Amino acid sequence: MQVMLAEEQTLEIQQMIGELIKSEIKNARKSVGADSPFLNKRQTCDYLGISNNTLDLWISMGLPYIKIGKSIRFNKDSVNQWMTRLEISA
Question: Is the whole model's pTM more than 0.70, yes or no?
């Protein structure tokens, strides 16, 4: 079975899908902290592709963080610099 739509309907559907995709990308970027220089622990784990236990280990190894009360944040630039210092050339 084939459904035929008027050109206006096709354009409207395309526009709706485009807006939905933009909205989902914006939500995903916000979720992972892509637009913020600071990340919480979950976002940092996602950013680095590691578990919370590994993040805690890396903190004990010197990964820089910011603590305000009970809140912990990570500066992406500082995390990147720390990782770069650990880089080993082959």
Answer: no
